[in-house]
Amino acid sequence: MPGQERRAGPVLAAGWLVVCGLAVACSHGCALPGGVVAWSGVFAGGSDVVLLVPLGLVAALARTPRDGSASLGAALVVSGGSVVSSIGAGWVLLALCRTPQAGRRHAPDMMALLLLAAGSRLPGQVDYLLPGLCWLATRGLLGLSLSLRVAPRGLRPFHMADIAAMIAAMSLWARLPAGTAVADMRWGGVLIVAGCLFYMTASWRALRAPDARRVLTGLAGGTGAIIIMLAGLMLLARADDLPGMAGCAGRTYMLVAGLLLAGVLAARALDVMEREAGALSLLRLGGLGVLMPRLSALFALALLAESGLPPLLGFSIIWMLLRLLASMPHAGGLAGEVPLLLALAVLGVGWAVRMLALVRIVAVMLCGRPRTPRGAGAADPPVRDQWAVLVAGLPIVLVSIWPGWWLALMQGAGSGAAGGWAGLAVVALTSPDGGAALHPARLCLFVALVGGVVAVVRWLACRTPTRQVAGWQQGAPVVPPWMVFGDPLTQVGPGNPARMLLDMAVAAPARRRFVRDYARSLWQGRRLVLAGAGRVAGAWRGRRLAGPVVLVVACVLALMFIAWQGQG
């Protein structure tokens, strides 16, 4: 019944908030009244259970059954053992599948989850395979892809379920067991290189996305690439026995978990904007900065946090990541510095493209002009409809100003020297070597002071006229009433900010030719792989085997290989 659905929403939200409180209490050493059932392989008790805190906030603000289902599957991943976590991750992948084609694309991820669950039950025997299996298993959860396509089939829209999927992937990476030093070192380097490439590709997809939700999908893909890079840095720190670097990577990992709250704010703001202004296509959207000022300010706050501009949380994560890359062990001389310089260069290019994507969506969506009558008639909803967005924006503001408090809250007794509730006094971020510190609260205070001065100067210099003055049209026809921002020929178009800067570096025909050749090479490689697999599957009596049969045979062969390795 509709009334029952309205009553069940607050009850579910309250339940998830209770789960957040229990996770915080358990992370600080508080024992639950009835104890915890510790069944081997069913429930997990570790530091990664504290990821239930951001997950609870995501699930409490979810509004669709698909988002709630993905949050429940992510809760199984965070709180379950090796087998239960793989089942929960498969549940989340099924929740993300909106079409049968998407379900078929996630078939390799499902097989990797099965192998990851089997390998996790054999500690010390197949640890050298687990990072690769986890990479394949979390590819769909993190939205990682080397494809440059931004069509609807290649880039799904952003919803709350994607945030729950990223939390599930973070939990899978956090509980990866330790392997041999050589294997961890090799996998660490591979993950860092792959993370840099994924970051640049995701930034490009965010720049070329056709609507606001797919722009956020590209930004979220960059966050997923940062998770992969941090996982590689943790493997390197563990292999080289560098506790300072490992601790700094773990703190940055928890900061990324806090950054996901900015995605919650953006998703909730887009839900309201879509209801008020219609479709979120950048060819039709515009002028919301004047028409919906309060909601646009909250959405801009989420974009700034995701982009990495100071003083919000994204900048703190970039600062920590650069410090971690500078602290990587490397050989002396030019040969040892070249990999670090290349990684920094790729990250810099990806960050610049990410900034262009931010400029594009802000210039079109907030500072452009309305292109439809419905968009021109949009306005801020009533205050009661904005409470959910305001509640979603409060955590990211607090975490951006005092990230040290968030780390103390998330890490609890394992937060280092200042463990437990005493860690709440530590509000700064320190580098792995302890030689540099970042105080985001001072940076936020400085930015607020500069913004106040700019607002006062603008108010003094731009006084409103005492009477209405008609604009000079120079003989042009009168602007239609829904185009309240003036002549459409003088306004910012949906692609002009990005294309203008891109044309300065590479000509448009060369850029289109490169993208077309890149997409064609990926398509031909995928076609060759499928053709080879079809030939192998149809070698028996000239018939093709069914896909599920091939999947089961591959899983059985992989388990036989794992068992054979264990016997050796």
Automatic annotation (TrEMBL):
Keyword line: Cell membrane, Membrane, Oxidoreductase, Transmembrane, Transmembrane helix
Membrane-protein topology: Multi-pass membrane protein
GO annotation, cellular component aspect: plasma membrane
Domain of life assignment: Bacteria
Signal peptide: none
Ranges that cross the membrane: 37-62, 74-96, 158-176, 188-207, 219-239, 251-270, 309-326, 338-366, 386-405, 437-461, 545-564
GO molecular function terms listed in the Swiss-Prot or TrEMBL record: oxidoreductase activity
Location of this chain's protein in the cell: Cell membrane; Membrane
Protein's recorded name: NADH:quinone oxidoreductase/Mrp antiporter transmembrane domain-containing protein
Matching PANTHER family: FORMATE HYDROGENLYASE SUBUNIT 3-RELATED, HYDROGENASE-4 COMPONENT F
Residue span, NADH:quinone oxidoreductase/Mrp antiporter transmembrane domain: 161-328
Gene source species: Komagataeibacter nataicola
Entries under PROSITE patterns matching the protein: PROKAR_LIPOPROTEIN
